[in-house]
What does this fold into?
Amino acid sequence: MESLDNISKQSVMEMEPEVQSVAFSDSDRLLIFIMEGGILSTICVTGFILNLLALIVLIRERKDFTFEQRCLAFFDMMFLALAFLTLGLPNLSHHYRKTLFLDFINPLFGLLHTFRVGSVCITVCLNIQRVFGLVFTHRSPPFLQRHLASILIVMSILYNIPKYFEFRVNEMSHVVTTDLRKNPVYISIYVFGSKFVLFELIPYITVLVCNVAIITKLKESSSFRRAHSFYQGRPSIVEVEGSSFRTKATAQRQGSLKAAKRNQSSLNQTFRAIKCTNLLLQTRRQSSCLVHLELIIEWMCYSLKHLI
It folds into this structure.
């Protein structure tokens, strides 16, 4: 039968790297304290505050932002908070590591992975919706637009249920892995295979393809705008023809006005000449021919007045 010391050593060796600090040397503990206790905790607290402020703005201005954006801020905020409680704070507080951390080890690790997977899923969802909004306009399926985020959230919760049963606390108050976590099939298929394919490889490829499609569309739009701005300062064929037609019409109108003025001046001169001739004939009424000529001139003067 193995001694208690051997069982304790074996339990320590079975622990996950997150909770294996008791088996490390002093230099390793110092490095872990600096990296996880100092740097990681600072990043987690800063990120939590920034995401909390962003979430407040997203909730207040809900008309200008989507449900997926609020979910992403919430998932990131909770992931950073749980990372601080799971990885950072145990290296900063010995009391917390020996009391609350041991009592809530499974919920903490389960929620940590749930919010991490949920954040990845919501990021993929936002990229897909952005592609349908910019590249494939008016082609987005209504079901995909409304329920994709909800489906991914439910999937992230169901996928991480086994994470809540990977650790236990032994009689020596040490965190050790359960039989489920030691199963080779569970490790190869669930811990490594499915996680790497579903939440590492596929999300990275999807986000990469979506961003390439968006960048290509933006370049096409930019080229179209440059081409449009190049021809915007130049008149089109219709504008040129319309401008030439207006120019011709204006010239014809101006020519007609000038011609009318010339005709009016000539008519005035003719009218004055006829008036002079009429005055001359009024002094000489000796002949009947002159009388008839006077009547004709008066009729011409009456007609010219109406023409003018």
Summary: Residues 1-22, 236-241, 279-292, 302-308 have pLDDT under 50 and may be disordered. Strands lie at 167-169, 175-177. The longest helix spans residues 184-232. The chain is about 80% helix and 0% strand.
